[in-house]
Amino acid sequence: MKICFYALRPDEEEFCARYARQYGIDYVFTAAVPGPENLALAQGCDAVSTNPCRIPPEYLDAWYGMGVRSLPCRSIGYDHLPLARAKALGMRVAHSHYPPQGVANYAIMLMLMCTRKMHQTMLRAAVQDWSLPGKMGRDISDCTVGIIGTGSIGTVVAKHLAGFGCKLLAYDLYPNDRAAQYVQYVGLPQLYAESDIITLHLNATPENYHMLDAAAFAQMKDGAMLVNTARGTLVDPDALIDALESGKLGGAGLDVINGENDLCYYDRSGQVLKNREMALLRSFPNVILSPHNAFYTDVNVASMVESAFYAVDCLARGLPDPDEVQL
């Protein structure tokens, strides 16, 4: 069995060598994203593994013709793949898994930074302005936090925030008993109306595309803060910017935004970036914008790479993969 890795970073390559030996699976790789010029690299491979990047249906057609039957993502999200085409071809799709603590704690870090106005504080400190006016923050312990999505990451967020003494509200189509130990499940209108901080922990689906739109922001408490470490497509960028400009939102901590796939993880120094949402958000002193870093710990990277080898091992053995996406 053999995997073709696209967009493989140097930090991932170290783990590839380890798991190739462990699972007895060969691999080839390139640091480049898939494109017409390098599709043939997958010739003779059983699987193609990618990070989130642009993959049109015709790429799957080409890989299928080369013998590729599995598409294990090195990410929890898999919305960058043309799933309908994968299903039509009978290709198996799997997402990765990793311990939820890394992203959960990163989300809490953004909450703390937003409530204590850390972005403004550090910008002013950089020019030796150590005065106090404009820097007064809020204690997160006095905040009501609304958690949208209580899967593994959202549940850890709830567990850890409970230690801060926060009041916790949650919304999920499928409530679970683990999260219910810490949260009160409510409808979205109540969560929007009562939360001082709203944090998103959902996979991207067609159904939740831009779920936080102008109507959703209008229901929120004045001065509420938004944290998003999930997917940029959950938030309507125009509505977000309007809410920030009007003061409806008091701030935001964003690790993901719309249209980030061609930006994150690349050095774009000196380039004109075709992302107006990013340009505007970077101009706001009450917005913290990080480049999709929440997942990035040594433990998580190792687990994401191993997930690809594990998926192919399951394919070889004819075993079910718990991370396989049901198309």
Description:
By secondary structure, this protein is of the alpha/beta class. The chain is built from 12 helices and 12 strands. The chain has helices at residues 10-23, 57-65, 83-89, 101-115, 118-126, 152-162, 177-180, 188-194, 214-218, 237-246, 276-283, 298-317, and strands at 2-5, 26-29, 47-49, 70-72, 92-94, 144-148, 167-171, 184-185, 197-200, 224-228, 249-254, 287-289. The strands form 3 sheets. Strands 8-7-6-9-10-11-12 form a 7-stranded parallel sheet, with helices on both faces. The protein has a 3-stranded parallel sheet with strand order 2-1-3, covered by helices on one side. A two-stranded parallel ribbon has the order 4-5. The protein is globular. The mean pLDDT is 94.
List keywords for this structure.
327 residues; alpha/beta; 7-stranded parallel β-sheet; 3-stranded parallel β-sheet; 12 helices; globular
Total strands: the figure is 12
Which structural class do the helices and strands define? alpha/beta
Q: Report the β-strand fraction as a percent range.
A: 5-15%
H-E order: EHEEHEHEHHEHEHEHEHEHEHEH
What is the helical fraction, as a range of percent?
A: 25-40%
Rounded to an integer in angstroms, the radius of gyration calculated over CA atoms is 21 Å
Major pleated sheet: 7 strands, parallel
- End-to-end Cα distance, whole Å, is 23 Å
List low-pLDDT spans. Answer: none
